[in-house]
Amino acid sequence: MAVVNNFVWGPVMLTLLVGTGIFLTIRLKFLPWRNLGYALKSIFIKPDKTKKKKRGDISPFQSLMTSLAATIGTGNIVGVATAMVLGGPGALVWMWISALFGLSTKYGESVLAIKYRETNEQGEMSGGPMYAMKNGIKIKWLGSAMAILFSVFAVAASFGIGNMTQANSISNAVYGTFGVPTWITGLIITGLAITVLLGGIQSIGKVCGIIVPFMAVLYFIAGIVVIIINFENVPAGIAEIFTMAFSPTAIAGGVGGTIIASMLSAMRWGIARGVFSNEAGLGSAPIAAAAAVTDYPSRQGYINMTGTFFDTLITCSITGVVIASSGVLGSVDASGNLVSGVNLTIMAFQSALGPAGGWIITIGIMLFAFSTILGWEYYGEKSLEYLIRAPIAIKIYRFVYCLVTFIGSTIALEIVWDISDTMNGLMAIPNLLCLLLLSNVIAKECFDYQERIITPERLTRKALRNK
């Protein structure tokens, strides 16, 4: 399984992921970059009710929070630290580069999700890459086959990377910090998951609309405090990040150890962990975008695009700069092995905050991982709904999903990581093909929205300023 996983997340796949982002960025004339400020403002602006009839289940803000709930997870704490150990501090730069092009990818897949979404028998919105494939690709048999494959991979990934691995991270973190047995933590997580998930997307959207902003602000403030306390080391840390991003071979060191990494390893691990963290191109986030109340596909496309900005360019950056400026990168444990993953991040926060740093990371993992469980349940549910048009199947799925949460909390299943990681990566193949095949549709929606909405709004603001 490891061999398959290495291929799925190997150079070919990473090139396809980033290459699609580069292609769409150029195809859209860099509008996702140029309109990032507009996109950030749009998060808190409600669509004009008088212009066009709105359809959807949750608000644009709740849709973004549900998407962020599934993307901002343990990858922002564990994944960044792992990338900086395996690829050196320079991996952070390649995370940023992949995220910049990922803005266009996330915009494009969200636009297609809104444009081709359908209304199910319960009156709820159903959308995502599978519906774009089915309704948008002209060769019907190809579109249908791609849609089925994507849905199967998404359902499988929801139980693994979206559930078991997250629950396991929570229970282990709580046990390590507070000594609470994993089965007790598992019962609590399962009970909370049942309470939220049985209420459907409205319940998920409301809870994520509270948890995600809270956890993001808490982690951001704590990270900034650590950076301020370690401020003397920040310039050297940032210099090391950029130096090792483009050096043929460079060395970084911390307490008792060194990290040797090349530009190629920094690129590989930075892009891999960046894509894994923000999920741009995997096709998961558009499923949440399709549930949003909106009047134009591009409006929600821009709003959901900011998920990549918040996830990688903000949250991952905080983790990366904290580690780089703390002096702990390259530390070794009692066995002489390099400290990596969550333990490295905890060491970085503890370097400035003491024991409180460990508590903050534990709380962060709890909130990050639990919100990921909620977001991924919705992704899996909608993917299953595409495969099986029976309401009873969805109810069974929700119940089984919650039970799997308890299993993940109490049993360390290494093979689950490999299988779910592979399924997560395989989702990207049909999704990226869909984006390339429907790039003209994405471009038309983008340019039309620019001409109808964004340009007139900017001209109006300019005229008012001139008065």
Domain module count: 1
Query: Could you give the distance between the termini?
Result: 66 Å
Judging by the overall fold, what is the CATH architecture? Up-down Bundle
Query: Within the CATH hierarchy, at the fold level, what is the topology?
Result: Amino acid/polyamine transporter I
DSSP E strands, number: 4
**Radius of gyration over all CA atoms, rounded:** 21 Å
Number of helices: 20
Mean pLDDT: 83
> What structural class results from the helix and strand content?
mainly alpha
**Share of residues in strands:** under 5%
> Which geometry do the CA atoms define?
globular
Strand order of the largest sheet: 1-2
What's the main sheet like? 2 strands, antiparallel
Q: What is the H/E string?
A: HHHHHHHEEHHHHHEEHHHHHHHH
Q: What is the level 1 CATH name?
A: Mainly Alpha
As residue ranges, the low-confidence spans are none
**Percent helix among the residues?**
over 70%
